[in-house]
Amino acid sequence: MAQPVEPAAPPDTLDPGLRDEMLRMLDRESAIARATEGRLAVLIVALRRVDRLQALLKGPAAAITMALVIDRLRKALRPEDRLAPLSDEQVCIVLPRLAHPSQAVLAAVKLLRALDRPIAFEGGAVVLRPCVGVATLPEHGFDPAELLMSADVARHIAETREEGYHVLHADDRVETEVYRGLDRDLERAVRANELEMHYQPIIELATGKPVGVEALVRWRHLKAGEVDARTTIGVAERTGLIGTLTHWILNASVRQAAQWRAAGIAPRLSVNLSLTMLTDRELPALVDQSLKTWGVPASALVLEIAESSVIVDAERSVAILTRMDGVGIGLSIDDFGSGFSSLNHMRRFPLDEIKIDRPYVRGMLQDAGDLAVVRSAIDIGHNFGLRVVAEGVETEETRAELARLGCDLAQGHAVSPPLSPAAFRDWWVHHAPGS
Description:
The chain is of the alpha/beta class. The chain is 47% helix and 20% strand.
């Protein structure tokens, strides 16, 4: 059966005025946003496997490829958004006058979906495997050139992420500079047992009772210093070490849980799971092996999956997670509220809890929009019969407001920073009832 043909593309070059128009609009809108305390986002979409599509084309292949791509992307955007090619393989998009930064994340996911279907031309079809870097104003500055540079750094990091997009974080420029060295050193660090685990307490808000702990990997690199969990996971995904690293984290955390249980304390253990592992058919066996080796019951373990994972690979992961739920392992949606939750997916997944994304919790006392997201997340979680955990609880005022709203659990520096295993044991004994 013949492939459908995309709408005809211009046989010559794209209008060079598109880029100039977009840059003028970025200058104008960034000035407006600064004057009105508004928001906008800059996204850079990078296209991979472009050569495969161009092999199907006749004439000026780069121009036709970009016209096909821009036609797809434009249909996923709002009328006021602007886009223009930066090169044969990159498109820049400006999203003006956003109400909340989460809209930029939603747009990135929509753009990835727009290019997820094969692009067909004259009987052939190719999937381009795009990635998207995201920078937002005011979080990443007001200067248009700075925003473009920030989006490009985020694009570089997105190329290493299974989600296909990345929103720039404060330490990402450092991350890009040390990535190559970390690539070489991580496998040696895992095999030499040079990683560490720290543990952040989780409490019940209504009573203050400690109920659980989140396991966080730490890597003290000789040159880069302490490498955080997010960067370590990103390097492992990029280098194909994620399976090895996940096995190490699970084994170390479950072994520690067994030692705590032997000492008379039994916190529920939460471990983050990357998107790559979420679709690995060997995951249930890997988890089962760790639990049996150290004699820890399945009910003591909660696996946390990123909200984006639910969207990106639901079909392939739901069966694996259902198997683990069947033996009593808890499942949690991490970073809930990032702007693209699917209630349909929430019904399909055998979830036990959701964790509200840190930025909303941190801003809820100052920003009515953040407060509305937190309140809605609590209501949604409870309507689905799920526990609701607030991450990033930094002040006693935030903790009190979350309790008033009916949130179930909390973690953050207002409760405790991440602790070494021995320090966590002491913290638990001090805070547990009857201590």
